[in-house]
Amino acid sequence: MKAGSLEVTREGDAAVIKASGDWTVGSCTRLDLALRKLSTAQARQVSFDLAGVERLDTAGAWLAVRTLLELKAAGISGAFRGVKADHSVLLQRVADVGELPALAPHPGFNLFDFLERMGKAVIDFGKAGRGLIGFFGAMLLSFGRVLRHPSHIRFTSLVSNIEQHGLNAMPIVGLLLFFVGIVVAYQGYDQLRKFGQELLTVDLVGIAVLREMGVLITAIIIAGRSGSAFTAQIGTQQVNEEVDAIRTLGLDPMEVLVLPRVMALLIALPLLTFFADIIAILGGAFMTYMVMDMPFPQFLDRLRQAVEVKHFLVGMVKAPIFAVIISLVGCYEGMRVSGSAESVGRLTTQAVVESLFLVIILDALFANLFSFVGI
Question: Which of 29, 82, 251, 263 has the fewest Cβ atoms within 10 angstroms?
């Protein structure tokens, strides 16, 4: 290997840069300094002679191309000469890239730019809402066709999705809800004992878990676990053109891909919510025994007195609605994937964010509605 070098000679009004040796990444630092100190004063034209270059890689080619670009910007014409055949292709490819784009300046605070971004966000939110409502309408139409022709139901896909997003989710749901019950019981006991009302800890655990915590935490887990899976699965099929293949076969992607997932979550989420309620109450019972020495039969007796059936029904009513929201958003974003891996990742993240946002907003609306009607 021979280190790359260069020298400048004169040919009348023209300057000649004679390169030699290996113009590779190992010589780039030294060659870059030499080129930056290059003096082409009084020269109207510069010739870059590469006949003596033995090895050339992308880094060396970029130094040569960049030099000519800078000379051109200074009003001096330049060209390569003596380029070997195997080097010309690399130089041409580097030259095709052109100048690297300048880094965008860091945006400062500007009221008009802020208002513009806010307006754009509102418009994008409105478009997303309109698209989601349209997708919901298309799903209802497909569901109506399936009801008229039950043979169109994909029972294998339905059962598989119930297993994946219901049965397989039980361990994580049970583990988290057990600790949620422990936390609610301990925090309730810690505050209520200041007023001498430790016994109301059981009431707090029962009502909070059955009305809110059980269904909400379960929906959040499923939104992150299953909603993202729906988007990633359907999005990958979009990238691989499998959805187009389904249409080519004369099948409806809504019936094949969307309805089995929506129906599976519609069945699985209420069952998971019931399971979560039981596990969370067991966690609360465990903590009340630890801090209050309350036996489990006494805990159940107090729970029976404090909790009415309506508290259980309030939580269970929310479950199928949350299931439709999570599955609908996941499938909708999956169908929007546009042929790239980056699109799959971006829309998967967007599906989780939208699902969580809608679930929490709906939960807040339900809380106010039930409070208004006295339930």
Answer: 29
